[in-house]
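Two proteins follow. First one:
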Amino acid sequence: MAEGVDTREYEIAIRDDRKVRISIDGSRKRSSQGTDILFIPGFKGFKDWGGWPWFCGELALAGHRVVRMNPSMCGVGASLDSFDEPHRFARQTLGHDVEDIEAVLGDDALGLDGPILLGHSRGGLVAAISAREYPAIAGVITMGTPGDLLRLTEDEIEMWRATGRREIVNARTGEVLHQDVEVLEDYLMRQEFYSAPSALAQSNLPVLAIHGGGDEAVDPSSAGTLLAEVDPDLGRKVIIEGAGHTFGLAHPFAGPHPHARKAVEVIVDWLREERSG
């Protein structure tokens, strides 16, 4: 957590006994020069993972109000820092997450005003799709986001179908999670709807695509893929040389990293430019 940042916890109930758990970094109302930012973590990520509280806290210190969310199906429940809801993780689709965004945007008590969606990795795909669907959104920032969610070989897809699920191993803890084959079939059935490059173009909103030049999980070329159909006047790509997929941040949090600080700087500058027109 960034020093000097006020953080409050909040929950929003979704149908089917789902909950979006939220941390709000910054004042109840953003500063007059600030922006409401909705942060969406990536696959196997969560709002309290490693350096994300610090990262979002830095944005809050710059005058913005940052809402960090755990999607209702991400698998991290009341524990806030472990996968205590693996049955939800197994069934999580992009569609579930987009529904969650709608609920967050529509929550009167939270009162987001013209928010920018900030998504890391898979969270950037959720941000892109949501930007097309919900007119309340004012812009999108992606960090280390792939141009396409499905990056499996045909053999891997067939194995997933044959077994009915696939294993997802947490490299840090060795914990084994699973994804049901319904997640695969949902994606294949809705590929056009889930196309992030198309969604970003159709949203007609400003987009900032940040990527680490040394990203070991998602090729840096993905930033260009995301912006391929976006009006050049609305899209900006920033490659942070040497940065990895999490921009030097780790879980547990081991302190700030220059790559993450650079990402914060890029975001703050971009937001300032967008507000000034």
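Second one, unrelated to the first:
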Amino acid sequence: MSVDGTLFREAMARLGAAVTVVTTGTLAEPVGFTASAVCSVTDDPPTLLVCLKRASRVREAFHEGGPMCVNVLASAQQHLSDRFASALDAVERFTVGHWTTLETGAPCLEEAVSSLDCRIERIVEVGTHSVLFGQVQAVRMGSPVPALVYFNRAYHHLPHS
């Protein structure tokens, strides 16, 4: 039985997800994009995965052995999500926010809810996407503020608990 792609995308739109900005490169030559297809794989060794559209103009910057930082956005950072999903060039995207590095040298957003600095261990091509497996080298915890969530093709702002 084959599932219709439109129906599959509609079902997946109803799966809420944290909004992140995923980066690579260096502070001098940064590259990044907005992603909600991010999840943990295992905690031993700490590993996560990120899905990136193969046709993305930033895809070639991400490679096995390279750095990758997953920056979880706060509810008040929707503008950063929009910026990193826009047609702005790579450097222009990074003119907002305060950027630093952790272990790998990938840009890390100082104001993020959390940042997971990884080394890309493996890339698996599946259909239209590349699945990037990152082994976490360092974690930076930001302020415990509500995260930004994407659900049903719209942003949602979680209340303080």
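SUMMARY FIELD: The radius of gyration is 15 Å. The first helix runs from residue 5 to 13.
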